[in-house]
Design a protein that fits this description.
Layout: H1 37-51, H2 64-73, H3 79-92, H4 96-100, H5 104-111, H6 117-135, H7 143-146, H8 154-163, H9 174-182, H10 191-201, H11 207-220
Length: about 240
């Protein structure tokens, strides 16, 4: 499959315009029952859409290959740091064909600041080789194919599927996992199980952007240590609010 140029994304959404101090005096909502979960998920979806009408992936990329590489680098690393690293990497190796024959020590040097650079460099070159030899130079679209690439798990595969191919995919990263539990959408700690549970609650067309919106909300409002519950639109339905 040949995919056209993907617009570069650099602008971060501001904190939700609708965020405001909200009353914390009322009783904390109860955790929804299994029968109540679909309606609960729809309420959360509507609230997130109001605060984040445009859901974007914050990893800078110009092609499916570049997003795949950037997402591999994002493991245990912030998107901001990855975006500082990839310009030099993509200037040297803009395509899978170029990266497949790269010198690993040079790639290690380029990605060192993202952490775990030895394994990441090995995975990047291995991924590029697999894309070239098994998929004719085009990043595959099927999740079953994507997860066979070195360094690619379900989260990375779902990022690529949903962001650049506009296919159903719900990436579960640390923010999605944390917020899904706090909001009462799941009790699971296994990202794969959480993915399947969320998929069952939402239309496939909403999966990717629901994940992106949860990530944005986790970064801007629902912090891991100090959630801003007083500014959260979802506080009225959150069984974990403080």
């Amino acid at each position: 499959m040949t995919v056209g140029r993907v617009p570069r994304v650099t602008k971060k959404p501001a904190r939700p315009a609708a965020s405001r101090k909200r009353s914390a005096t009322s009783a904390r909502p109860k955790r929804p029952t299994k029968a109540e979960l679909p309606a609960h998920a729809r309420v959360i979806l509507r609230g997130l859409k109001k605060d984040y009408p445009v859901a974007i992936c914050e990893l800078t990329h110009d092609s499916p290959f570049q997003l795949l590489a950037a997402t591999i680098l994002s493991a245990q690393c912030t998107d901001a740091r990855v975006n500082m690293t990839t310009p030099a990497l993509f200037a040297a190796y803009p395509t899978a064909e170029a990266l497949a024959v790269a010198d690993i020590s040079h790639v290690e040097q380029l990605v060192k600041s993202t952490g775990f650079y030895a394994s990441k460099a090995k995975n990047l070159i291995g991924m590029a080789n697999a894309v070239m030899t098994r998929f004719g130079g085009d990043v595959p679209t099927a999740i079953e194919d994507l997860i066979t690439l070195p360094g690619v798990g379900r989260k990375t595969a779902n990022v690529v599927r949903s962001v650049v191919f506009n296919l159903p995919g719900l990436p579960v990263d640390t923010h999605v996992l944390r917020l899904s539990k706090r909001l009462g959408l799941t009790r699971n700690d296994d990202p794969v199980k959480v993915e399947h549970e969320l998929n069952a609650l939402l239309p496939p067309a909403e999966w990717g952007e629901f994940s992106l919106r949860l990530i944005l909300h986790g970064r801007r409002v629902c912090d891991a240590r100090k959630p801003l519950c007083g500014e959260c639109r979802l506080a009225a339905v959150c069984p974990s609010r403080q």
